[in-house]
Specification:
The complex is a heterodimer of chains A (about 425) and B (about 475). Chain A has about 425 residues and is mainly alpha-helical. Chain A contains 16 helices and four strands. In chain A, the strands form two sheets. In chain A, strands 1-4 form a two-stranded antiparallel ribbon. Chain A is elongated and about 100 Å long. The C terminus of chain A is likely disordered. Chain B has 16 helices and three strands. A three-stranded antiparallel beta sheet of chain B has the order 1-2-3. In chain B, helix 7 runs antiparallel to helix 8. The mean pLDDT of chain B is about 90. The chains are: A mainly alpha (about 425), B mainly alpha (about 475).
């Protein structure tokens, strides 16, 4: 083995290639880290501001030390955070597109849930430069470069027959060759990762998971490459290189794309815009309806407010918030169906990972990094829950027509920002 | 001399044909292209259907409004969908990332929402395969595989020395080889352009956009052909030629574009939207509160109105003061929101600028900029869409405020319902695809890079082919 390493590292172009890869991997880690750090600092900043802004709001809007519940519901925004986990920098996934700070108020949730983030769309389109990307796309290329000409190289140097006559067990000999190359490729990915984890003293179990994924993935490509380049008649290095790079193109680009096409055809998804337009129609149509039409079904859902003072005038906040909420209620079935479809798509994509190693590695890394669609759905559920808590906190004041005091606003629910990125119930476990 | 170049090119083709592998690779390339066209068409159709549905539905919802108070209509709002050019089939660009629907309402400037990228599965992380990507990534890759040996093999077998010894000038060999590689690919590009032309006949600004795209693609591929011949000429061994070329490909096509975009994002991070919205709102509070009778700005406004109509009380005005107040308020909020929008645009422009500084590293990204601009799916086109919809919003809301002012009796303001005919005739100018000139900055930079991309390997080739 030692001999193999010496032989390998003596080739200048190879050493250069490995060094370049090391730099790239380190850069990808740094880049991911920087991105997540930026998100975290923005969240922290927003959290600090939130309390101050609420104070400001109270100061501005209180009349004789009290506030009107309707105004609080309408004007007071609450932050919700899409908080990254400790290891999110490994695979940025959808974190670049999903807004990490969003503002929610008591109005209908469906008109607020899909706000976009003000990122640079071209940047998101080009894709992220993170560890997952390098591992999935670049590691196979490295394997191919190192292992496509195992036999052919010896043949070209006219050493092959000589070698075979020298070694007792050719199988053993080639195994050592492949193993040493696999170790090198894996080290290129593992070393910066270990260094990084050590520097920032990150937790261990995700690290082990990532190491396993990396080792397995590079191992798979090593096996593939050696299978091609150690065939009986594998004496043409160029043919091997072409065959292997076609496999790479198939696994990294063509098949995932075809799978995606199939997935979209198999699980069609209602566009979010349809929901938004229906929601508008429901909410704004309610202005023209008799108040009974809104309040009756609302009180049927929330009988505890049935016997509160009736709405007699032209306008009352309780009627306004009731029809805002009823818009959400009417769309509930459609929203749930959408969520189900998204989850089914995610499940199907994970299942495809059993057959496509590239998809498998990406999906596993995103699961560790908590940045796939399942986590987004969990996040949306949390927003929904928070919105419900908010309504429950304000409704008593709204329906019993009591004014809010400063103290009561200060004790209103805050989005549970300290919730760590939960290792969501990933449907397919570890494949 | 032309005959000589042709002869060299023909010989090269003969050799490629006999080697079998190149012909096979060409077939694979065309198959890939077919898959890409299929996928891209599916993708485009999805978007086009969404846009059509949204436009139809929003039109229907708007027209079927009953008699209402104008201010209620301005809160009812309007939906605008981003138009999609048929050339998106070739390059969808930021279609998935930018959001395709804007909600236009009074006192607020909303962002474009609903980008499918948010809800993409793991599979969405793999680059979308499109005809543009075939040209940008796969054509060069296959070209490398077909032709990395083109001169090196002649060198190894001694044919090159033989030809030079017979008096064949180096530049003739170089141009012959280059022509042999470039012509078939150019043919493919032209074929793609012709098919697209036939398919999207009659669509807006088609010829100019398609011509620009074809020109850029031809330049890009010509540059790669030059590079392949040059590297092949410099190399002494087959595998070193292949390795060098593959390394160039990985850097130019995969690593640099992503790396540059990421660096720009880190160097000039954008302000989160929630933050920007908050700033706009707090600024609005400081400007003036139209509900507060003691607010100095609106006090002065009221006085100017009273002076204009020569009355002493707003009750005596011949028009509805509430409507006037709404107009003034809308003017102020719009100014603030537009300022915020301009700030955001400036941030993005700064990122773009920093990418453009390093664009020469990656002609692939330069080509992508041109293709995105040509298909109407780059950032400037998106920003133009946002501007157009914002102009429509302002026009619409002010129209409604005028109806509020002149058609609603101010003594019975809240109970008045205005005839639905007014909404049916409201100004809602269609949102069109802007001219390509909106992205002139990235177009210029990208074309300069592509020309440099021709010059650099070209001059190296001239140097090496003079060697004896």
């Amino acid at each position: 083995m030692k001999h193999e390493f010496t032989l390998l590292l003596k080739q200048r172009s190879l050493t250069l290639l490995l060094l370049l890869s090391l730099v790239l991997v380190s850069f990808s880690l740094l880049n991911g880290w920087q991105n997540i750090r930026h998100i975290q600092s923005q969240i922290q900043h927003a959290q600090q501001e939130e309390t101050m802004r609420k104070q400001d709001f109270i100061q501005h809007n209180s009349h004789d030390g009290t506030l009107e519940a309707g105004e609080v519901g309408y004007y007071l925004f609450h932050n919700v955070y899409y908080r990254p986990g400790e290891w999110s920098f490994i695979a940025l996934g959808n974190r670049l597109v999903v807004p990490y700070v969003q503002r929610i108020r008591l109005l209908g949730l469906q008109s607020q849930l899909y706000d976009g983030e003000s990122h640079h769309p071209e940047y998101v389109m080009l894709g992220t430069f993170d560890y997952a990307f390098l591992l999935v796309f670049f590691a196979p290329l490295l394997c191919i470069a190192l292992m496509h000409d195992l036999k052919a190289n010896e043949q070209q140097a006219q050493r092959l027959l000589f070698l075979h006559s020298l070694v007792k067990e050719p199988g053993h000999f080639w195994f050592k060759r492949v193993l040493s190359r696999w170790v090198l490729v894996t080290l290129v990915f593992v070393l910066p990762l270990l260094l990084f984890a050590g520097m920032h003293s990150l937790s261990l179990s995700p690290l082990l998971q990532i190491l396993t994924i990396t080792a397995l993935y590079t191992f798979l490509w090593s096996v593939l490459c050696s299978a091609v380049s150690l065939r009986k008649r594998a004496l043409n290095a160029n043919f091997n290189a072409m065959l292997l790079s076609s496999i790479w193109v198939m696994l990294c680009v063509v098949l995932p794309n075809l799978c995606q096409l199939w997935l979209h055809a198999r699980y069609p998804l209602q566009d979010g815009s349809q929901l938004a337009m229906q929601h508008r129609q429901l909410v704004h149509g309610a202005w023209d309806l008799p108040k009974e039409d809104t309040l009756k079904p609302f009180y049927a859902l929330y009988p505890q407010w049935k016997d509160t003072p009736p709405v007699t005038g032209r306008f009352h906040w309780k009627w306004y918030f009731a029809f805002q909420h009823m818009g959400d209620v009417h769309l509930q079935a459609q929203v749930a169906a959408r969520t189900r479809t998204l989850q089914m798509r995610a499940d199907a994509a994970t299942k495809m990972g059993r057959w496509l190693p590239t998809v498998w590695a990406q999906a596993q890394l995103e699961a560790v990094a908590c940045s796939d669609i399942s986590h987004l759905l969990v996040h949306r559920q949390q927003i929904e829950k928070f919105h419900t808590r908010l309504r429950e906190a304000i409704y008593p004041f709204l329906f019993e027509e009591r004014a809010l005091h400063r103290k009561e606003i200060e004790s209103m629910p805050v989005f549970d920002a300290n919730e760590p990125c939960t290792q969501g119930p990933h449907p397919d476990g570890n494949g | 001399m032309n005959a000589l170049i042709w002869k060299i090119a023909c010989n090269e083709w003969r050799r490629l044909w006999h080697a079998r592998v190149p012909a096979l690779l060409m077939i694979v390339l065309v198959t890939l292209w077919g898959i890409a066209a299929l996928a891209a068409h599916h993708h485009w159709q999805d978007h086009a259907q969404t846009v059509a549905k949204v436009t139809a539905r929003s039109q229907h919802d708007w027209q079927s409004q009953p008699d209402r108070h104008p201010h209620r209509v301005s809160h009812f709002g309007d939906f605008v969908a981003k138009p999609v050019h048929p050339l998106s089939v070739i390059e969808p660009g930021i279609l998935d990332q930018s959001g395709h629907l804007v909600y236009l309402e009074a006192h607020r400037l909303n962002s474009a929402n609903f980008n499918p990228a948010t809800e993409a599965t793991t599979l969405g992380r793999f680059s979308l395969i499109t005809p543009a990507m075939i040209v940008q990534w796969w054509m060069p890759l296959f070209l490398i595989m077909i032709a990395y040996a083109t001169v090196t093999a002649d060198k190894i077998t001694g044919i090159l020395a033989f030809m030079r010894g017979n008096g064949t000038p180096g530049w003739a060999i170089a141009s012959g080889k280059w022509l042999a590689l470039f012509l078939p690919l150019l043919l493919l590009l032209c074929l793609q352009a012709l098919l697209t032309l036939a398919w999207s006949w009659h669509s807006d600004q088609l010829l100019a956009r398609l011509a620009l795209m074809l020109l850029a693609q031809a330049l890009y591929i010509a540059g790669w052909c030059l590079l392949v011949v040059t590297v092949s000429w410099y190399s002494r061994q087959l595998h070193s030629a292949l390795l060098t070329l593959l390394l160039c490909w990985v850097c130019v096509c995969i690593i640099f574009p992503r790396g540059l975009a990421n660096l720009a994002q880190i160097a000039y991070p954008t302000q989160p939207r929630a933050e920007a919205e908050y700033h706009a709102e707090s600024k609005l509070q400081s400007i003036g509160d139209s509900h507060n009778p003691d607010d100095p700005h609106f006090q002065a406004f009221k006085q100017s109105i009273l002076n204009k109509y020569q009355v002493s009380r707003i009750e005596d005005l011949p028009v509805n003061y509430q409507g006037l107040l709404m107009q003034e308020g809308e003017r102020l909020t719009t100014a603030v929101y537009r300022e915020q929008q301009a700030l955001h645009d400036a941030q993005l422009a700064k990122q773009n600028e920093s990418i453009r500084h390093w664009l020469w590293l990656t002609p692939a990204l330069a080509l992508q900029y041109i293709q995105m601009a040509a298909s109407g799916n780059d950032l400037p086109h998106h920003q133009a869409f946002i501007r157009q919809s914002e102009a429509r919003r302002y026009q619409l809301i002010q129209y409604l405020n005028q109806i509020h002012t002149y058609k609603v009796d101010q003594h019975d303001d809240k109970n008045t319902r205005v005839s639905a005919d007014f909404w049916k005739n409201a100004p809602r100018p269609p949102v069109n695809l802007p001219p390509m000139a909106v992205s002139h900055a990235s177009l210029t930079a990208a074309f300069l890079v592509l020309i440099g991309w021709l010059l650099l390997p070209g001059s190296l080739l001239v140097r090496v082919s003079h060697r004896l």
